[in-house]
Amino acid sequence: MRLVKKAAAIAVASMMVMSMAGCGSKPAETTAAATEAATEAASEAATEAAEAAASEVAAVSGATVDVSDKKVGISIYKFDDNFMTLYRTELERYLTEELGFKKENVVIQDGKGDQAEQTNQIQNFITQKYDVLILNLVQASSAPEITDMCKEAGIPVVYINREPDVAEEERWASEKIQATYVGCDARQSGTYQGEEILETSNKGDINGDGKVSYIMIQGDPENVDAQYRTEFSVKALTDAGVEVEELLKQRGDWDQAKAQQIAQDALNQYGDKIEVIFCNNDAMALGALQAIEAAGRKVNEDVYLVGVDALTEAVQNVLDGKQTGTVFNDHFTQAKMAADLAVKYLSGEAVEPVNMVDYIKVTKDNAQQILDQLK
Ligand code: BGC
Fold first, then answer.
1. What's the predicted TM-score (pTM) here?
2. Domains of the chain
3. Fewest Cβ atoms closer than 10 Å to its Cβ: which of 87, 111, 217, 261?
4. 139: Cβ below 6 Å to ligand 1?
């Protein structure tokens, strides 16, 4: 291990200094020169050791652990997801570049949207004795089974993005299982979406008939993110005393192409009755925008459109008036938190079962600022 080697180098160098200084038969200059050379070698070795320590020993809020030989197994529900691609890129960067894990020790698998396949991958991580797992489950409802597999093997798990249910999270605490969740409270993002509609000049009632008529394009309804965003976006309107009419609610599975088709069909069927298109994420808002433009309609003039995530393209659309608003789903902070908690487990520290990161509302007012942050 590198760290041990460096420490040995320092020891050898200082032994050289000591033995040379103690050698009385040598002329004084030679001894001084040798001492200087040895001191230089020692200080070089010390600097290198300090650098190695900085890159290989991850220090997270007081916890210090040598991660140079630690293996992290990561499984993403599917690689073909815009938001999770940003998330996994940041996760890998942070683990290797900032925490000092070796690139070859951070292995990321594609769950391909198939729970059976993903469970197999996790089983392989376990057989290969990975030290910690970071998992974005295909189905959050598989958490109890997966948690038990990891518990048996003594491997801690950090779940991300798809939240297991409360009963499961409570079990981790009560049975002292090394499992935790990092995510965002999707009620907050839903509420922000509703507020963005309330903040428009006509509070979403474009045709002035006294009610807001909307369509809802949902993510995968198995995900609590999709359930909460759907519920709380509309709740923000009704809580503010605004009457609403749901024309359509359909699952688009977080997918741009599916959302484009749904929006296209809805625009054909309901025409200018549609005043708001709520999308549970930005990928689907991008799809809806394609359909809106193809139907010759204009966002913010004859229809409002909101999403969640703050994908660069969507934030640019907010700036350009082609999307009413979005909500920043902060993958930077979530990735950092997930990796830091993995390190805490490795250093034997206790970890809270649920760890939430705040969403940030994005409208024309702060879109440029968010865009700068995303770069
Ligand atoms: C994001 C979606 C993403 C989903 C994956 C959500 O939090 O907003 O864009 O597709 O997570 O589980």
1. 0.84
2. 72-183+330-357 (3.40.50.2300), 187-329 (3.40.50.2300)
3. 261
4. no
